[in-house]
Amino acid sequence: MFNLVCVTDSEGFEKRQKEGFNNVHLSQWGCNHLLFKNLGLPKIYDVSFVGRCYGKRREFVDTLRNHGLDIRTFGLGWKGGGRVPQSELIRIYNQSKISLNISFASSGDKTQIKGRDFEAVGCGSLLLTRDTKEITSYFVPGEEIVTYTDSNDALKKIEYYLKNEDERKKIAKKGFERLMREHTMEKRVTDIFNAAYKFKH
Prior knowledge:
Low-confidence stretches: none
Order of helices and strands: EHEEHEHEHEEHHH
Strand content: 5-15%
CATH topology of the largest domain: Rossmann fold
Distance between the termini: 15 Å
Helix content: 40-55%
Number of helices: 7
Largest sheet: 5 strands, parallel
CATH architecture of the largest domain: 3-Layer(aba) Sandwich
Number of strands: 7
Oligomer: single chain
Mean pLDDT: 92
Radius of gyration: 18 Å
Shape: globular
Strand order of the largest sheet: 4-3-5-6-7
CATH class of the largest domain: Alpha Beta
């Protein structure tokens, strides 16, 4: 017996509600701002992606690389890759001009919000993530993050924001400010405990 079930997927939330589970709370990933910080390190990577190589991720990255973009990949399954320790993950985000999120789930065409959607922003990098209904609930595209619809759109936006440093930094700064107001793990946990208290009473 659970007082509260927390999910981060809106479809899963709606499914459980239809099944009659009233004690379901829709939460989301966030950023531990005590660990994921802007360290002021030099930006040595134009674009980075940190995560396992599965599903459509390799095809997506290869498409961008075939157009001449220097996409640095880190994680299991990529050439020379392995598990990325948290300290290294924070360093990579800090040293990336653009942090790419490839939002595909491990199978099928479903997209998901990932922890990197928040953690990269917390490290001062410009987030480039897939344009989904879910992500617009947390950030304003074009003002706090940048979104793309497909690999061609991602290519154009990467090229644009690499050339326009001031605009890139402005968006990254606004994303960081929004994150600190609303998307820290401290705020997520507080929200979950408040929901658990409500359902219990």
